[in-house]
Amino acid sequence: MNRTHTSGQLNEQHIGESVQLIGWVQKRRDLGGLIFVDVRDRSGLVQVVFNPEISETAIQVAEKLRNEYIIQVKGTVIARAENQVNPNIPSGAIEIHAQEIEIINEAKTPPFAIENNTDAGEDVRLKYRYLDLRRPAMYDTFKMRSDITKTVRRFLDDEGFLEVETPILTKSTPEGARDYLVPSRVHNGEFYALPQSPQLFKQLLMVGGFERYYQIARCFRDEDLRADRQPEFTQIDMEMSFLSMDEILEMNERMMKKIMKEVKGIDVTIPFARMDYDEAMARYGSDKPDVRFGLELVDLSETVKDSAFKVFASAVETGGQVKAINVKGAAANYSRKDIDALGEFASVYGAKGLAWLKVDEEGLKGPIAKFFEGEAASSLIQTLEASAGDLLLFVADKKSVVADALGALRLKLGKDLGLIDENSFEFLWVVNWPLFEYDEKEGRYYAAHHPFTRPFDEDLSLMDTDPSKVRAQAYDLVLNGYELGGGSLRIYSREVQEKMFEILGFSEEEAKAQFGFLMEAFEYGTPPHGGVAFGLDRVVMLLSGSTNLRDTIAFPKTASASDLLTQAPSPVAQAQLEELNLKISNTQ
Amino acid sequence: MNRTHTSGQLNEQHIGESVQLIGWVQKRRDLGGLIFVDVRDRSGLVQVVFNPEISETAIQVAEKLRNEYIIQVKGTVIARAENQVNPNIPSGAIEIHAQEIEIINEAKTPPFAIENNTDAGEDVRLKYRYLDLRRPAMYDTFKMRSDITKTVRRFLDDEGFLEVETPILTKSTPEGARDYLVPSRVHNGEFYALPQSPQLFKQLLMVGGFERYYQIARCFRDEDLRADRQPEFTQIDMEMSFLSMDEILEMNERMMKKIMKEVKGIDVTIPFARMDYDEAMARYGSDKPDVRFGLELVDLSETVKDSAFKVFASAVETGGQVKAINVKGAAANYSRKDIDALGEFASVYGAKGLAWLKVDEEGLKGPIAKFFEGEAASSLIQTLEASAGDLLLFVADKKSVVADALGALRLKLGKDLGLIDENSFEFLWVVNWPLFEYDEKEGRYYAAHHPFTRPFDEDLSLMDTDPSKVRAQAYDLVLNGYELGGGSLRIYSREVQEKMFEILGFSEEEAKAQFGFLMEAFEYGTPPHGGVAFGLDRVVMLLSGSTNLRDTIAFPKTASASDLLTQAPSPVAQAQLEELNLKISNTQ
């Protein structure tokens, strides 16, 4: 079996050459005694023409061809007539006049057409994933994924990183998301856990003097799935010793720049912008702001704290906020009904209401305009830089609801109004995170990143007095409103790590049982270190322009964590369970 | 924090330069009012000298230093006196005269010294793996491992392969080794399995038109462990469409050649030798022969079938074999006691006895010499190309025992007698394998490789008549007596695959339940395809000259599949089990 060229490779330069191809029948048309067959391989398409005057034998075989048959063809490259040139494919100016053909394998009619634009449901596509993967757009995505990891690896190799594999069979830890468990046969009643990240192992490699580690690492979380979650996902994972936060960010900026150049052909400017967490929340209502457009949140709490509109005044009085978005020039485009729909949207994020005003030449209009007259109106207009034709949208609530609701509304309006340049890639570091988040319901602190994040040195004393004020040496990289990943400098002293677990509510025994080995390691000459992890699946999704994370994973799981192709998970033999000394207590 | 150089980088060329280093204290010596400190980082060692005449402050700090402290040092590179040059390290001709020092982190006394030659037990090394990894020899191994995967990836990238990740949460299949199971929380009573290899997925990628796939893939087997087995291991895994076996072997030879060149600096000759499975078994008693030395097995069955020595004659008569090794010139070195010890050794492999003869100027000597006189003696001597001083060792038994016992004995003698050039790397393809192995105890056929291996076209009809005669289009790559891996062309027709499962004893329903999706895939235009998988851990072990597979894995498990560092596996919370609806039926 042999090919001299691939389908996608052929063009005018090959005219007159004798070529041999192998590929799939994309389409067959019979026309005027000739048979035209588009032959597809992973590189593209080329048209092959069977003509009884060239070979009677060949056209007889061609008559049997159906879609997705695999054929081997030998023929000559001929220029197409000018009116038959197809400008949409690289081989569109030529065709192959076939002398010989062999059918390598036959095919039943696929349940859906192998074309980029498919209306097949995702369940069918997942069940027949091997056919779905034949769609050229899918191949392109996985080619891009492979190119991204190639670029990452070459970059990190050149920077002196070692690729090290960390275990998949690890220890279950209580902090964080739910673990997938693996029962041990040798140690009955005990379990391994699949890692949520290689966090502890990469820190141990730093203790072990490796200085620079990376891995394209598989990670696992047994969580309820959403459109952008999978039970297993992949991290570009790295850790390094002796580097400052600035040095870590700078290196990762160069890596991202290289990916963008190699994979998208786009030159992005470095250094990337940096924004404090507090500023991101204030201006965009989000810790991963999409900075490709404005519509920023404006704080009116000071302006309206004595407002005649009691909803505003009392929100401020009870410790909340009043913030607004000025949708420039949109007043005429949004009817009362449209605005009601925006209110519905905001309520999903917890807002009890969405107040609004329109601005015209005479001043403010709308149901609450009566509360804003004279000085109150002009200070509103001034603070919001409003002018005639603007639509002003207000949320008055506690701080987190204001941020969530207006942040989400801002994104929706940005899309609806076409304010976003879909071809632009705006990277942003969000820095100066809080170390802890306080959970009011549970009355306890959680680690905003994870329990190994190093606090700022100058905030160490606050760990005893006011943990909520402690800032973390952590950083997230945001692209177009998506968190690509992030990292932190790590704690490398036993005392600080113990304090951390104490604040998180671990007893001394619990901390020791779960993380004693790490704290012990810190006592044997541990270098200052820090790291980064990026979500590869999400990077691929953003760079490929997809909105479905499953399109970036060759064999993904559904929202109920099933593989529709192989039918995993599935029942297992009773003998397998007996070997593990396990019983299913209550099958649903 | 900043370093201008690394320790291993400094040499005579830097004399006179001011440098700044960060690293671990390898050793401190106080001598004549000076303090000498060896500073280690991952690149190597350099000697730093503290002199009160240069800095009183610095030497006061240096007085506190103990092994494994991390320090930052600033100083000047000075040539050592000629009689103090250390030729064993690259920086041995220079030393740093320190002006400033800062202690970055302190260290307790490690439980074992951080040196290449350690007498620490492996349990202690595994418990304190982060200290074990600081030993330069360990770092070198992982640097080599990283270099090997880098070389493999660059080679395969250049050959047009796509790196594709396949799932870790997959479906349990009954064939092969024992699966690790992962209970599903969403689908109670059902389980995922961790993959023993990406076999099915890589074939499905070929069905999906990817044409060339590779992955450095984690695989899992819940088997009883031996020195060269780990519960999780790594495969260099690839699959390709439309290539012949010769093309696959040729590409892999070029890949191996490149690895040897890049990692070991050795030029190996390609193409590698190829040997039929039958020949390997006949000449070496092994399907993975070490061909760096002779001591081949010689078949004497024909020669001795009518021998006066009944043990030989009856072995042949009952369908067995008589084979021998001629240990040239060894007669004088092996006493009767030594030979008895060899007999003990052979008995481990099932041999009921080890017959022997010595050759001297007069003929054969030894307890069975009396059975070989005249013609019988001379035909033995001739067949074995024996001459005075040779030791002849015989096993007479059924074929498999003869091969196992003499094959093992050959390896032992090769080592004991120093016949093996430890610096030579002899690659060998073993080809023309049988498709099936018949298990006499269970009275059934097993797949010699796996159930997806393609038989020779011309042997297809034998599947119905005599499966044991069917040859497989399979190949193993052997290096110095170790199987590095192998592969095969795959079945790509539903009919042949069904026949395969039938011979392996699957009912139609079982085959469909387990592998129905694959057989269905074959009906939609599947390309002829084949692949290879190499055991990365073993490749690293052989190229690094180690004999312990655990030294090639950063965080390995013990023989009872435990991680002594993190204490995995471990008990989990009752709540975790309840979420999975699992009960431990009988804790040991």
UniProtKB/TrEMBL annotation, chains A, B:
<dbReference type="Pfam" id="PF02938">
    <property type="entry name" value="GAD"/>
</dbReference>
<dbReference type="GO" id="GO:0005737">
    <property type="term" value="C:cytoplasm"/>
</dbReference>
<feature type="domain" description="Aminoacyl-transfer RNA synthetases class-II family profile">
    <location>
        <begin position="142"/>
        <end position="556"/>
    </location>
</feature>
<comment type="subunit">
    <text>Homodimer.</text>
</comment>
<keyword id="KW-0547">Nucleotide-binding</keyword>
<dbReference type="InterPro" id="IPR004365">
    <property type="entry name" value="NA-bd_OB_tRNA"/>
</dbReference>
<protein>
    <recommendedName>
        <fullName>Aspartate--tRNA ligase</fullName>
        <ecNumber>6.1.1.12</ecNumber>
    </recommendedName>
</protein>
<dbReference type="GO" id="GO:0003676">
    <property type="term" value="F:nucleic acid binding"/>
</dbReference>
<dbReference type="GO" id="GO:0004815">
    <property type="term" value="F:aspartate-tRNA ligase activity"/>
</dbReference>
<dbReference type="GO" id="GO:0140096">
    <property type="term" value="F:catalytic activity, acting on a protein"/>
</dbReference>
<dbReference type="InterPro" id="IPR045864">
    <property type="entry name" value="aa-tRNA-synth_II/BPL/LPL"/>
</dbReference>
<feature type="binding site">
    <location>
        <begin position="221"/>
        <end position="223"/>
    </location>
    <ligand>
        <name>ATP</name>
    </ligand>
</feature>
<keyword id="KW-0030">Aminoacyl-tRNA synthetase</keyword>
<dbReference type="InterPro" id="IPR047089">
    <property type="entry name" value="Asp-tRNA-ligase_1_N"/>
</dbReference>
<dbReference type="InterPro" id="IPR004524">
    <property type="entry name" value="Asp-tRNA-ligase_1"/>
</dbReference>
<keyword id="KW-0067">ATP-binding</keyword>
<dbReference type="Pfam" id="PF00152">
    <property type="entry name" value="tRNA-synt_2"/>
</dbReference>
<dbReference type="InterPro" id="IPR006195">
    <property type="entry name" value="aa-tRNA-synth_II"/>
</dbReference>
<feature type="binding site">
    <location>
        <position position="483"/>
    </location>
    <ligand>
        <name>ATP</name>
    </ligand>
</feature>
<keyword id="KW-0648">Protein biosynthesis</keyword>
<feature type="region of interest" description="Aspartate">
    <location>
        <begin position="199"/>
        <end position="202"/>
    </location>
</feature>
<feature type="binding site">
    <location>
        <position position="490"/>
    </location>
    <ligand>
        <name>L-aspartate</name>
    </ligand>
</feature>
<dbReference type="GO" id="GO:0016740">
    <property type="term" value="F:transferase activity"/>
</dbReference>
<dbReference type="Pfam" id="PF01336">
    <property type="entry name" value="tRNA_anti-codon"/>
</dbReference>
<comment type="function">
    <text>Catalyzes the attachment of L-aspartate to tRNA(Asp) in a two-step reaction: L-aspartate is first activated by ATP to form Asp-AMP and then transferred to the acceptor end of tRNA(Asp).</text>
</comment>
<dbReference type="InterPro" id="IPR029351">
    <property type="entry name" value="GAD_dom"/>
</dbReference>
<feature type="binding site">
    <location>
        <position position="230"/>
    </location>
    <ligand>
        <name>ATP</name>
    </ligand>
</feature>
<dbReference type="InterPro" id="IPR047090">
    <property type="entry name" value="AspRS_core"/>
</dbReference>
<dbReference type="GO" id="GO:0005524">
    <property type="term" value="F:ATP binding"/>
</dbReference>
<dbReference type="InterPro" id="IPR004115">
    <property type="entry name" value="GAD-like_sf"/>
</dbReference>
<dbReference type="GO" id="GO:0006422">
    <property type="term" value="P:aspartyl-tRNA aminoacylation"/>
</dbReference>
<dbReference type="InterPro" id="IPR012340">
    <property type="entry name" value="NA-bd_OB-fold"/>
</dbReference>
<comment type="similarity">
    <text>Belongs to the class-II aminoacyl-tRNA synthetase family. Type 1 subfamily.</text>
</comment>
<feature type="binding site">
    <location>
        <position position="221"/>
    </location>
    <ligand>
        <name>L-aspartate</name>
    </ligand>
</feature>
<feature type="binding site">
    <location>
        <position position="175"/>
    </location>
    <ligand>
        <name>L-aspartate</name>
    </ligand>
</feature>
<feature type="binding site">
    <location>
        <position position="449"/>
    </location>
    <ligand>
        <name>L-aspartate</name>
    </ligand>
</feature>
<keyword id="KW-0436">Ligase</keyword>
<feature type="binding site">
    <location>
        <begin position="535"/>
        <end position="538"/>
    </location>
    <ligand>
        <name>ATP</name>
    </ligand>
</feature>
<dbReference type="InterPro" id="IPR002312">
    <property type="entry name" value="Asp/Asn-tRNA-synth_IIb"/>
</dbReference>
<dbReference type="InterPro" id="IPR004364">
    <property type="entry name" value="Aa-tRNA-synt_II"/>
</dbReference>
<keyword id="KW-0963">Cytoplasm</keyword>
